[in-house]
Amino acid sequence: MTLHAMEAPSGRSHGQPKTTKFVLILIFVTLVFLTIIPVFYPLLGYPLYLLKASSPKPSPTTVYDDSPEPELRSSIKISQGEECDIFSGEWVPNRAAPYYTNTTCWAIHEHQNCMKYGRPDSEFMKWKWKPDGCELPVLNPAQFLEIVRGKSLAFVGDSVGRNQMQSLICLLSRVEYPIDVSYTSDERFKRWKYTTYNFTVAYFWTPHLVKSGERDDDGPTQTGLFNLYLDEFDERWTTQIEEFDYLIISGGHWFYRPSVFYENHQIVGCHFCLIENVTDLTKFYGYRKAFRTAFRAINSLENFKGITILRTFAPPHFENGLWNKGGNCVRTKPFRSNETTLEGDNMEFYMIQIEEFKIAEREGRKKGKRYRLMDTTQASLLRPDGHPSRYGHWAHENVTLYNDCVHWCLPGPIDTWNDFLLQMLKMEGVRSHQERLYSGDRRMRFK
Ligand SMILES: *[C@@H]1O[C@H](CO)[C@@H](O)[C@H](O)[C@H]1NC(C)=O
Ligand SMILES: *[C@@H]1O[C@H](CO)[C@@H](O)[C@H](O)[C@H]1NC(C)=O
Ligand SMILES: *[C@@H]1O[C@H](CO)[C@@H](O)[C@H](O)[C@H]1NC(C)=O
Ligand SMILES: *[C@@H]1O[C@H](CO)[C@@H](O)[C@H](O)[C@H]1NC(C)=O
Ligand SMILES: *[C@@H]1O[C@H](CO)[C@@H](O)[C@H](O)[C@H]1NC(C)=O
């Protein structure tokens, strides 16, 4: 499946830090810290929206146990004994959005600059995510930057990960633009710095998460045939991340493409490679192994003290055909949660991620590694209207992914993923506060 994901972001990057209303912001942030202390409670296992859905679901193939889980999902405590899963909810109108445009933000990737390419409707920008039973605040850029002061955040994944990073840069641009501090001129490995806040954002391009290479640029579906070394680290990112405070790891769409799987330096099978005597193990096999190896890489890093956030699979929305067979996404409104359901490949990808995440978390916990889930799947599933469709390029341009129902227009629904991110960062603050209270001086305990 997909993509013009291989393409580099257009080089319209010139740092232009804005002067900030610094004192006001400080006062504001202090107030926010004093008022927002959402108490944070564990929410175990699978998300509520899978449990509450009415129709029977295909069950995952892998067995998982029900041993007690740590606080993997972010939830907000509403009242005694009641929690709110921020990832389960509905889209509601938001007249205040969007918070930036293609003229105020230079970080929008060419292929996600939908207004530039003539997208006629703009209602898709005017929604906000409303979790069932609580509120998810829209990202406050000053507050975000204050929380990440002196920290670093890396996006590890494919062009959808880059899409989220660019959304973040645009959302923060009301306060400050970062400067380019990349260590290479390779556009697939970017590093940005917010000088006022000493905050670094990086992007590591690794569409398969493991070591990979193109075996044939044509292949059975004319989208390339890839060699995936399923048990080998992609050192382009695994050697670079130790110093980071937060990793947001994601992946998905590239596993649709034909590929040959290697383990222990031998071909063990493939996904739709059509090579004689090579067993087709399906894309799910490659996907599971790739996540397993990526998490193993993280758990093996002695000096990595950061938090690993899995950003779950964001379903594509091709209708009336496959991506290369005339499929398109022409809706202009979100779904309500009762109008669609996670199923088929999307469900399988999602379940594989959750299962591998739990395994990794359990392993990592022994070594002091911390994992969190940013479960964007349901919110994204409900946004068939948020993709570029044919407005990711000029109509006459001959691009591989003509109708793009994978990436997200900016501004657009992907901005909400950064609302999730801020909420999760705030909860980390509460969590470490609680840990100090409970592990340290007993006299400081409440009650
Ligand atoms: C921004 O979008 C408008 C249409 O809303 C378009 O005319 C313009 O070229 C775009 N500008 C940039 C810098 O992308
Ligand atoms: C900036 O942050 C880094 C950690 O990301 C830290 O090592 C460094 O000392 C900080 N620099 C300043 C000037 O605060
Ligand atoms: C495939 O396997 C068959 C049976 O073992 C063998 O005769 C044939 O030569 C193999 N083909 C290739 C290309 O290895
Ligand atoms: C979905 O829920 C909404 C509001 O609760 C309701 O108005 C609508 O009829 C429902 N749609 C379906 C397809 O069940
Ligand atoms: C688009 O490009 C591909 C390969 O680059 C070519 O095979 C195809 O004929 C082109 N289609 C059109 C309509 O120009």
TrEMBL record:
User: Do you know which Pfam families this protein is assigned to?
Assistant: PC-Esterase, PMR5N
Highest taxon of the source? Eukaryota
Principal cellular location given in the protein's record? membrane
Specify the protein's topology with respect to the membrane: Single-pass membrane protein
Domain Trichome birefringence-like N-terminal as annotated: residue spans: 82-135
Q: Where are the transmembrane segments?
A: 22-44
The entry assigns this protein to a family as follows: Belongs to the PC-esterase family. TBL subfamily.
Domain Trichome birefringence-like C-terminal residue range list: 136-424
Question: What name does this protein carry?
Answer: Trichome birefringence-like N-terminal domain-containing protein
Q: Where in the cell is it found?
A: Membrane
InterPro entries to which the protein is assigned, alphabetical: TBL, TBL_C, TBL_N
Alphabetized PANTHER family for the sequence: PROTEIN TRICHOME BIREFRINGENCE-LIKE 19, PROTEIN TRICHOME BIREFRINGENCE-LIKE 9-RELATED
Question: Does Transmembrane count among this protein's keywords?
Answer: yes
Coiled coil segments of this chain:
none
Which keywords does this chain's UniProt record carry?
A: Membrane, Signal-anchor, Transmembrane, Transmembrane helix
